[in-house]
Design goal:
Layout: H1 2-21, E1 26-35, E2 40-51, E3 54-61, E4 64-68, E5 70-74, E6 77-81, E7 87-94, E8 97-104, E9 112-119, E10 138-145, E11 151-160, E12 166-173, E13 176-177, E14 181-186, E15 189-195, E16 200-209, E17 212-219, E18 223-231, E19 256-259, E20 264-266, E21 276-282, H2 287-303, E22 308-314, H3 321-335, E23 340-343, H4 348-355, E24 367-371, E25 377-382, H5 391-409
Length: 411
């Protein structure tokens, strides 16, 4: 009997030990420590669940849900990679808290940011004054003042959730939007954040009066700049179709690069002959490019059978051909892209501009070229305003599909 009791206790202890090692399912509040001295933290929320007995993390940014399934546990250590982007978390599980770091492999300096996650916490920012009558609802004319002395114009678009203190929104710029931002208006303090695996954005601003905002913008731990906003429902930016243009209107695009399987693909291939084309200049590291790629996937499904071909030209963060190939292939698989993604083995906007010398410049990724059946460039669109921008995205979709349909009708 004594032996049996000992065995039962031992088995019970083993069971409890195994159970304790299993990651707790539920809600978490993650925190990236951008500046430990000033206690500047970027919060975001996520859930941990199990799918076919494997852990699954779902990160929330306003309406966006990011599925993270590349997760590995080794005793009390937890490792998980962000989908598409070359970044990862390495943590230790200490009861209800994870402690570790987020590592951004695209950067060479300031690429490791301390990270903590707290179990059973659901609030992104602490709400101190949810009864406040203050509001940031609407459209704001914004100016970012960079550390390098350069200023950038933007448009802030904010919306209170069910007239509460909770706020969703984004910033539109001439090179793309800041994607899904989520936060709160605590009295006169506006706090917004976003973490998507590439962007680690924090906005901290004060509402000076009903029509003026002043604050600070943090991008990871490597960038910080001041910004200000004036309420202006008619605020506008430059037309994205006028930023990049052809020096010669008769220019015909020509390219030849390898795809992720190592096969050469050229604009002169028979596949593209007499086809309307969309050529996307992008990178697998670029969140706006990922938003545009998801949209172009829908465009391909809708118009490919009618004579449209889409090709993406990837300008990666590295000149290493094998690493570029692996990153592009991972992106293509993750997004289930049905069109070719070619690897230029070039990096940056300057190299992209050199690749297409008949254009005045490549000002942003993505930049998208629309070609007629003879491969003349009929429109160039700089940047991308994704689903988080609401009306701007809807208008882009409407204009783009009208353009494509018109080009398809031409013979």
């Amino acid at each position: 009997m004594r032996t049996l009791i000992v065995l039962l206790v031992t088995f019970s202890g083993l069971t409890m030990d195994v159970y304790a090692k299993k990651i707790k399912a539920g809600s978490y509040r993650g925190v990236l420590v951008l500046d430990e001295t000033n206690n500047t933290v970027l919060p975001f929320t996520f859930d941990l669940s199990y799918e076919n007995k494997k852990p699954l993390i779902t990160i929330h940014n306003a309406e966006e849900k990011i599925r993270v399934d590349e997760i590995r546990q080794d005793k009390d250590s937890l490792f998980f990679k962000m989908p598409v982007f070359d970044t990862e978390f390495r943590c230790k599980i200490k009861g209800n808290v994870w402690e570790g770091a987020w590592i951004n492999h695209y950067r060479k300096d300031k690429n490791i940011i301390p990270f903590k996650a707290y179990f059973n916490q659901t609030q992104r920012f602490e709400t101190k004054d949810i009864s406040s009558t203050e509001s940031v609802e609407g459209r704001w004319e914004v100016l970012f003042k960079g550390q390098n002395g350069k200023s950038t114009k933007a448009i802030g678009v904010f919306h209170h959730i069910e007239q509460s203190a909770f706020v969703h929104g984004t910033f539109l710029t001439e090179t793309g939007d800041y994607r899904y931002l989520e936060g709160v208006l605590n009295g006169k303090q506006l706090l917004l954040s976003c973490f998507d695996g590439s962007h680690a954005f924090l906005f901290d601003a004060s509402l000076k009066d009903k029509e003026h905002l002043e604050g600070v913008f943090y991008s990871g731990s490597h960038w910080k700049e001041n910004w200000s906003g004036i309420k202006n429902d008619s605020a506008k930016l430059r037309d994205p179709a006028e930023i990049t243009y052809t020096k010669n209107k008769d220019s015909i695009i020509s390219f030849r690069f390898k795809d992720s399987d190592g096969h050469w693909v050229a604009s002169s291939d028979s596949t593209f002959k007499n086809k309307v084309m969309v050529v996307q200049l992008m990178g697998s590291w670029c969140p706006n490019c990922m938003d545009e790629s998801r949209y172009l996937k829908q465009v391909h499904e809708k118009y490919n059978g009618l004579g449209l071909e889409i090709v993406a030209l990837a300008f990666e963060k590295t000149n290493d051909a094998e690493k570029s190939r692996a990153q592009v292939e991972r992106m293509k698989t993750r997004l289930e892209l049905p069109y070719a993604v070619l690897i230029t083995e070039k990096t940056g906007k300057d190299k992209a501009s050199e690749t297409f010398p008949f254009l005045n410049e490549i000002a942003a990724f993505p930049t998208t070229l629309f070609l007629d059946r003879r491969h003349n460039i009929v429109k160039i669109h700089t940047g991308f305003s994704g689903p988080a921008t609401g009306k701007a995205y809807t208008e882009f979709v409407k204009e783009t599909e009208a353009l494509i349909e018109g080009l398809l009708e031409q013979r």
